[in-house]
Amino acid sequence: MMLDINLKQKYLDRIVNQLLLRKRWSYLRYIHLREGLKKALAERNSIKSFLSVGCGLGLAELALAIEYSQVHFYLTDFDATRYKMAQNMVKNWSLLNVEFGMYNALSPSDKTYDFVASIEVIEHIENDVLAFKNMCKTAEQYLFCLVPFATDEMNADRKLRNYVWRKHEHYRCGYNTNDLIKLAQNNSIRVLTIRGCYWQNAGFKLRKIQEELSDDCLLSSRSNLIELATTDIREDIPIDGNQLSGIWMLLQV
């Protein structure tokens, strides 16, 4: 069922509000994933299926499913309870282009999808090289991967590695441009773009403001917060960990 424009905007507004209220990186994850999908569609407007690996709440993907109703979205996470809210929205709003399920990045998939996305996933997997390889094989056209940023020096720091494991269960502090290019080259796929995200003077600034505001203040400041979030979208490639906290790339298979 196609949503009329007013209902579409109503549902998008509700999801955006939820993303802002969830704080941390939730809204920023959405806008960067949207940037990746927009770029892929601009390159080749033939994307019909979208797999999200480790979707978490699934709200970012749900917003995209409403905006891009011509694409069928498959949302997966190791913990199905995490996307319960998104499941209820899909049911209540009769969104026919969204499904939920399981995907194991450490095993080959018998299905493929035009666009495969993972946000802050592979750093949680000890054999990240294998997980990335399997996601590449699962992607028919494009692979989007957003991860924490870290320099070689940060990854070599044992104390820092121990800290991120205790705090976030990350097997490594993060990835830098060379790390991502190497992953792509090892799988013989083309890098379309690499961008930094969660910049200190943009996305990180937004996160700090969100942490300080009550829910009511957050929603009343919605337009200003969204405007600030858009400044996190930039073409720049990071150099050091003092600039930002994340990095993403879009690959063409």
Your description of this structure?
By secondary structure, the chain is of the alpha/beta class. The chain has eleven helices and seven strands. The protein is 46% helix and 20% strand. Strands 3-2-1-4-5-7-6 form a seven-stranded mixed β-sheet, with helices on both faces. The longest helix is centred in the N-terminal third of the chain and has 18 residues, at 5-22. The two termini are 31 Å apart.
Cα end-to-end separation: 31 Å
Q: Report the biggest beta sheet as strand number plus sense, adding barrel if it closes.
A: 7 strands, mixed
Residue-averaged pLDDT, rounded?
95
**Strand segment tally:** 7
Strand content of the residues, in percent? 15-25%
Large-scale geometry:
globular
How are strands sequenced across the largest beta sheet?
Answer: 3-2-1-4-5-7-6
What descriptive keywords fit this protein?
20% strand; 253 residues; single chain; 11 helices; alpha/beta; globular
